[in-house]
Amino acid sequence: MLLRAARREAARRGPRVQITGPELEDLACQAAGDALLAITQKAGQFRGESRFTTWAYRFVIFEVSAKIGRHFWRHPTRSLDAESWDRPPARFGFDPAQESEWRDLLAALRRAVDTELTPRQREVFVAVALNDVPPDALAIKLGSNRNAIYKMMLAARRKLRAALAANGYLHDEESRRS
Amino acid sequence: MNGWAALDRFLHTDPRDVGCAEAMDMLHVYADLVAAGVPAEEPYPGVAAHLRACGPCGQDYEGLLAAIAGEAS
């Protein structure tokens, strides 16, 4: 049951991160084995808030997720700290034809990143938002965890949004609500 | 959506967001409710806000729903 769930989850995520064939099967088997170990060790913590199978599947999903994060650094396709300010991040969906717009936006964002963020926040923001490094992979590289990376990004996003709003690039929260 | 709107959306944060640790602690409960057709966002608005905002946790949530659906099929 766990192996079936691990195979399904690995197959769902694998192609996106370019893991296929025997490597994907190996990842699924390891994930199922590690999930079984975690379930055995933590069975006493099950409080009956959900079905037992759903609680157990959660460990499979977490194991597949963690193993895919570790796999990223075996064949890294993106850099951790090289700053690519000369092209728009794909996540913002810029039209290449609107170069003047995205250059203006990136310049404002870069100023805010340089002036508002701590060195650690800057490192995390550049890796995740600009270089598209998966947060789980970044957490492994920095000896951190997903929650800490997320909180770092949350603080960075709040600071950048406030700075861009203060400089008239974005509407502040009050005008957003009105 | 233009680039400014996309950046605005990316930088926007939801004060109800509980973060990864709490969302993952409750993921099995939340997913079971959703799989049963119960509106889980009402009892767990902070988890719902987090799953919308956090890509990796959103992926885990989708995976868990797929596992539940696969079990039923």
Description:
The complex is a heterodimer of chains A (178) and B (73). Chain A is an all-alpha fold and 178 residues long. Chain A folds into 2 domains: 2-72, no CATH class; 90-177, Winged helix-like DNA-binding domain superfamily/Winged helix DNA-binding domain (Arc Repressor Mutant, subunit A, Orthogonal Bundle). Helix content of chain A is 66%, strand content 0%. Chain A contains 8 helices and no strands. Chain A is elongated. Chain A starts with a helix and ends with a helix. Chain B is an all-alpha fold and 73 residues long. Chain B has one domain. In chain B, helix 4 crosses helix 5. Chain B is globular. Chain A binds chain B through residues 1, 4-5, 8-9, 12-13, 49-51, 53-55, 57-58, 60-62, 64-65, 88, 91-94, 98, 101-102, 105, 109, 129, 134-136, 146-147, 150-151, 154, 157-158, 160-161, 164, 169-171, and chain B through 1-4, 6-8, 10-13, 17, 19-21, 24, 27-29, 31-32, 35, 54-57, 59-60, 62-64, 66-68, 70-71.
